[in-house]
Amino acid sequence: MAIVEVRQIVKKFGDVTAVDGVDLASRDGEFLVLLGPSGCGKTTLLRMIAGLEIPSAGHVFIEGRDVSQLPPRQRNVAMVFQSYALYPHMTVFKNIAFPLKPLKMQREDIREKVMWSASMFGIGHLLARRPRELSGGERQRVALARAMVREPSVFLLDEPLSNLDAKLRTSAREELEQLQKRIGITTLYVTHDQVEAMGLGDRIVVMNEGRVRQVGTPHEVYHRSADTFVATFLGSPPMNLLEKDGLVIGFRPENFLPVQLYGDDRDVERFRFDVTWMEDLGSDRLIYGNVEREFAHRHVVAKLSANVTFSVEPKESYTFAVPKDKLNFFDAGTGLRLEGRFALRDVHGA
Ligand code: ATP
Fold it and tell me: Are 59 and 49 in contact (CB under 8 A)?
């Protein structure tokens, strides 16, 4: 059974359709990431699951029960926001105990619950402190412990790491991933950061303009992008797209390399590459330029790892190549991925 499921869910704010008919089902215990550009509707979708926003149409199911009309408190979900929203004047203990208040529990039982939740997140020693006496990572764990204390069946996290600096963000991400796997709670996580999504997600839901464009593992969405939006939203730099005769040919910058680097036995598609400029990023070199005139939008980028010592100079031409099994084909009209017969296509003869 899916822990969280939405069916044909829509949310309109006046003229704006924030979520436009989304179907989605999580798997038990999975880390499901909602990824997309700012304004694509991912926060609105999460808020409808939490019960903080009423859908204009469609249904939300939690553990098989239609909760569409229930208030947040009765949905057995816990939501952690970007800001953590900890109460500054309360100790960590009181912050974690707060959601138990309406349950009118015995003092001892509350204490037991708080200790259980705090120990799960490794913050048992911080219970007497106030939020301002904690690091960003510790605050995050307090917010998670507070969300966990009512033993929800799902965690809803809205960009919980975005207030942390880059270094802390990486360690907090790693920690969150390990915690989630250990606790095994189904988690829906909203972010616009593709690196975070690829690192954390068992599966990623890529959204744009209120709709789901693709659901898949990080490997699937990156290597078998369903359309040109997904192909260019993921990857840094994004996938190169060349157009010719109603066909879009896509390849990732890291697969576009000097032909000499591929062995004779590799079936490759060759391109003349007129280099315009380069950037050295330390770990990689980005090489910008144009391929043959037969293609529309012929500006492309190559990404050469620092291990590749091949000399490349601006204003020179080279033969670069992409293995044929790394080429992607899309319909130029719809942007949708094309499969099968296109896989072996000779791009220059297209
Ligand atoms: P971000 O990453 O910037 O938070 P998002 O993908 O989470 O973006 P949403 O916050 O879900 O996007 O917003 C989707 C669309 O709905 C946007 O166009 C936004 O302006 C609009 N919207 C969201 N909440 C409201 C509201 N309460 N009233 C009116 N419009 C809203």
Answer: no
